[in-house]
Design brief:
Shape: globular
Strand content: 15-25%
Order of helices and strands: EHEHEEEEEHEHEEEEHHH
Largest sheet: 6 strands, mixed
Strand order of the largest sheet: 5-4-3-2-1-12
Helix content: 25-40%
Number of helices: 7
């Protein structure tokens, strides 16, 4: 049996200091101050919730998206955001690495990180030894993130000692293909740190359940707290059933033990099982697929154009004046 305790945090946001409002005339663009007074408190808040996660035996805990709170600065000057991405990622990785080792558990955390001169929204998995075992870079960016970040170009599977895991971050889950690619690449578990969805509450939650059932994977999702907002942190099984969720509770933690060796099977007397000779739904799916029919899925797509420098300045001013919403 490959039993593991999956946990997800549901952090409530901390008060936002208006000195760090990048649309304000009194904005203090001081990276050291932002790190000290905005980023680090949010990381420590997240770490406090992770310490409450069940770590008996084999355990993995997941944070929500953007634990450092850099989304507040997506409209800031690019040079400032670049520096914050470096400073905050260094601070986050040092602290999450230490916590994973102290708690002898896997910790998956999501934050912006500057890699090779570009910013990415990443999910990193820290092993019980504190080392980063794998990293995923968000591949589908909503328009606001395109201002400061690049999209990743790989749907990679991360090898853990108990299973193969994939990660999808927030907006990625709006697209059915990434979850399918991960499942076809061997992933049994998908980690999903998120700040919400691109659609409303119940459909967002139904989407997660559908992705899990369609691909016969477990999904561990961690969302920041928003009262009556889209989605809840929780654990979803291969049938698309929600095994545990954090409800609409602020600063909540949810944990559930799963057995990755428990098969997704239908009864032997059920006609698809009898006719195919396979009761295992995942195995049958792999054999019954018709990839030769799916070519349209890989046809080139028109890429959304990111506003240039002048357009960005004009839009930023409209947002600052309240003429349009960010």
């Amino acid at each position: 049996m490959r039993k593991v305790i999956l946990s997800a945090t549901q952090a409530g946001d901390l008060p936002f200091d208006r000195r760090f409002d990048c649309l304000s005339d009194s904005f203090e663009a001081d990276p050291a101050a932002i790190l000290r007074e905005h980023v680090l408190p949010r990381i420590e808040h997240s770490l406090g919730l992770l310490r409450r996660c069940d770590n008996r035996g084999r355990a993995l805990a997941l944070t929500n998206e953007d634990v450092c709170g850099l989304a507040y600065f997506l409209l800031a000057d690019a040079a400032l955001f670049d520096e914050l991405a470096v400073l905050s990622a260094e601070a986050a990785e040092e602290r999450y690495s230490k916590l994973a080792a102290e708690r002898d558990m896997y910790v998956a955390a999501c934050y912006f990180k500057r890699i090779g001169g570009k910013n990415y929204n990443v999910a990193s998995v820290f092993g019980p030894n504190g080392q980063i075992l794998g990293e995923y870079r968000k591949t589908h960016l909503p328009p606001n993130e395109m201002w400061q970040a690049e999209d990743g170009d790989c749907l990679n599977v991360i090898e853990l000692d108990f299973c193969k895991a994939g990660a999808l971050i927030c907006y990625d889950m709006m697209f059915p293909e990434p979850a399918s690619v991960l499942a076809l690449s061997g992933a049994e578990l998908i980690l999903h740190p998120t700040a919400g969805y691109g659609w409303y509450d119940s459909i967002g939650e139904a989407t997660l359940r559908t992705r899990a059932n369609d691909n016969s994977v477990y999904i561990l999702t961690a969302k920041n707290y928003v009262f009556n907002g889209a989605g809840k942190s929780g654990v979803i099984d291969r049938w698309g059933q929600t095994l545990a969720d954090a409800g609409f509770y602020r600063d909540a933690v949810v944990s559930k033990e799963i057995d990755l060796d428990e098969p997704k099977t239908q009864p032997g007397w059920y006609y698809p099982s009898q006719m195919s000779g396979h009761a295992d739904v995942r195995a049958r799916y792999l054999e019954e697929r018709r990839p030769e029919l799916y070519g349209a899925l890989t046809a080139p797509a028109k890429r959304l154009r990111v506003p240039d420098g002048l357009e960005r300045a004009e839009l930023r001013e409209k947002v600052r004046k309240g003429e349009c919403r960010w």
